[in-house]
Amino acid sequence: MPTLDSAGVSINYVVEGSGPPVVLVHGFASSLQGNWRGTGVIDALVASGRKVVALDCRGHGESAKPHDPEAYGGTKMPDDVIAIMDRLGIDRGDLMGYSMGGMIAAVLLTLRPERFRRVILAGVGDALVTGGGGRERNESIARALEAGGRGEAESATARAFRAFAEQNGNDLTALAAIQRSSRGGFDRRKLGETACPVMVLIGEGDTLVGPADALAAAIPGAKLVKVPGDHITAVGQAAFRRAVLDFFGDGSGE
User: CA 247, CA 119: separation in Å to the nearest integer?
Assistant: First the structure.
């Protein structure tokens, strides 16, 4: 699989199929294999006549895994997406991110809107516009990832993150560094300036992110779609793939 040096960090990515491009950004403690290959999303998009570009975010999958929070700070993770698009000569494409990837997609939607035709914010909820969560929650997750065992985690949420990270064979120290990083670039006020079509896509049983009504309402014309499943299982549902294909279409029109 090809790699790209993005500001000194090796980023793994795949390119499959032909046609109008779709860029996929996976969630925290997952990978392009976990969120997109294993769920059938890549195959479905390729079969629909699309070129699929999917990356392993820094700290994940086959990409490099720095242990310094600064390696993930600012807009470094969204910048990796743009760097791959530039490498491949993609001036404008469709974009979908799930969970952490949905947050990265939201940053790109507000910072680099000219690069995207349609955007799916999946696995993210109203916290994007209300500012829920925050540093305390992130630090709790980081401590759980660094603990001697998942039983030492301070909350059920932190234990769940630790269990999911271990299940996927992650570098726990790298993931803790991501949680402690000062990621930025997202201005929720700019969501109201969005001109391209947006779909907010969540599992109807996703208690981790909760409702997404306020998020969809903050984006002009955004479509809110709920599919069966929770935060982990929704992305693997046939209804999820159908919603993605219906929204992106064949890429032939604006």
Answer: 9
Multiple choice CATH, 3-132+187-248, 3.90.1150.10, 1.10.760.10, 3.65.10.10, 3.40.50.1820 = 3.40.50.1820
Provide the total of helices (H) and of strands (E) in the chain, helices listed first.
10, 8
CA distance 41 to 27: 14
pTM above 0.90, yes or no: yes
> 136: helix, coil or strand?
helix
Name residue 26's amino acid.
H
Query: HSE (CB half, 13 Å, CA atoms) of 220?
Result: 9
Q: How far apart are CA 191 and CA 216, in angstroms?
A: 10
At 193-245, the pLDDT tens digits run 999 999 999 999 999 999 999 999 999 999 999 999 999 999 999 999 999 99
Sheet containing 198-203: give its strands across.
3-6, 9-16, 51-55, 21-25, 93-98, 116-122, 198-203, 223-227
What is the domain partition of the chain in residue ranges?
A: 3-132+187-248
pLDDT bucket at 152, cuts 50 / 70 / 90: low
